[in-house]
Design a protein that fits this description.
The chain has helices spanning 5-16, 32-43, 93-104, 125-135, 156-159, 177-188, 191-207, 213-230, 240-259, 264-274; strands at 23-28, 67-68, 71-74, 77-79, 85-87, 113-117, 142-148, 163-167. The chain is α/β, with parallel strands linked by helices and 275 residues long. The chain is globular.
């Protein structure tokens, strides 16, 4: 929490003055779910008997235990042939309908309810359209907390209805001076230089027996871009929203690498074009 004093002061003030927005988007660094839970507790501070003193054991609820009192957790799920749910790659419209039903229920001890959407960028298009309709009809006793590292994957209409709070990741691994210098050169270079970098990277990947060099490189890009948001040393001259978009592009490339059979040359080049 100490790393995010300004963000927490803003949230605590909103809770104490009862000026809480209908929906919040927490994006960026780690521990945003803990902060979201603390915020829900702050909103309901007069109602501590309602069970909002949350212990660490509740911080990582599994899909089968999605509801805790007045809090509903939503996360990407996948249903197998037997109807069993497990973690998946998207949040469906059916989950949004369940969310809507939860919002209609009477809360415990008249406390405010909260819907925490983990990996909110995994809401598919139909789910986002359905969720938008819920946001367009605010319910005074429900606050929505969307958690994501890829806000660019959410519809602009959804984003426009959220109070957006950025949490820089202060636990970044070091990419090293040489790698940081290389990335800065790539960003400043033209497409020919970027594509030459991609070709060399893919050639090295093909020669390697371990299929993780490209994944590590993209992970380094995410770390470097995040660092550029909070470090003058690595500042790129981008507006914050440009850097966030570039981070989203890198994370999207990682997702395609790990979860699809997409052409990795095109995948990497598309990322470099978006820088």
């Amino acid at each position: 929490m100490d790393s995010y004093n300004k963000q927490w002061e803003f949230l605590a003030k909103a809770a104490s003055e009862e000026k809480v927005f209908n929906a919040y988007l927490f994006y960026g660094g780690a521990a945003v779910e803990d902060i979201a839970l603390d915020f829900v507790e702050a909103i309901n501070s007069p109602n501590k008997e309602a069970g909002f003193i949350l212990e660490k054991k509740f911080k990582n609820l599994q899909p089968k235990a999605q509801t805790l009192g007045n809090i509903l957790f939503v996360e990407p799920l996948l249903e197998d042939s037997k109807g069993n749910e497990k973690k998946g790659n998207e949040i469906s419209i059916a989950q949004v309908r369940e969310l809507s039903a939860f919002c209609s229920l009477t809360s415990l001890n008249n406390a405010s309810k909260a819907v925490i959407i983990r990996q909110a960028h995994c809401l598919n298009t139909d789910a986002q359209d359905a969720f938008l309709k819920i946001l367009e009809e605010p319910r005074g006793n429900v606050v929505f907390l969307l958690l994501t590292e890829q806000p660019d994957r959410l519809l602009p209409t959804v984003l426009s209805r959220c109070c957006k709070i950025f949490f820089p990741n202060n636990n970044l691994f070091e990419v090293g001076e040489d790698k940081a210098g290389l990335f800065q050169e790539i960003i400043k270079g033209n497409l020919a230089k970027r594509f030459a970098y991609a070709q060399n990277l893919l050639a090295a990947e093909e020669k390697s027996e371990q299929y993780n060099g490209l994944r590590r490189e993209l992970g380094d890009w995410v770390a470097f871009l995040r660092t550029s948001l909070i470090s003058e040393k690595y500042a790129l001259g981008y507006k914050p929203e440009q850097t966030v978009k570039a981070i989203g592009a890198a994370q999207r490339a990682i997702y395609l690498l790990e979860n699809t059979n997409a052409n990795q040359k095109l995948n990497l080049e598309n990322f470099l074009i978006e820088l």
